[in-house]
Amino acid sequence: TPSDVTPDGRLPNAYNGSAPKDVSHLRDVFGRMGFNDQEIVALSGAHALGRCHADASGFVGPWTPTPTMFNNLYFKLLKNSTWEEGCIKGETCKNPQYRDAASQQFMMLPTDIALLKDASFKKYVDLYADDQKVFFQDFSKAFSTLLELGTKNLYAVV
Question: pTM score > 0.70 for this model?
């Protein structure tokens, strides 16, 4: 439910009105935690797992056909697919998102597409799409840093 979603400011908003605003927002949110562009893109690779649920976020669908397997397929699809605005086949979206034009089964958030629109972010998308081992190494380091930052002011979800 919406009450189960993290408070504003702890995770980036997935849609900020334009690709430049999405890029700026990603840098703002992750920059507050000390992450650079490479680490922001590496952490975005967590989208290889799971899916969005319209009732919780307003976005709907999986990023990849393997939502329970951690791999670099998120980056391969992001880089190599043609993306169009719209909801995945058979679903209703509450927020603007993208779908792969070929099958209309996979989605990307506006902030995912923004990774392609910024040259500094895009070079890491390209790198991780082409080299899963480097992605795993960079993700591991960035995720460890994220965990080491810890948390505060959290509340129990009942």
Answer: yes
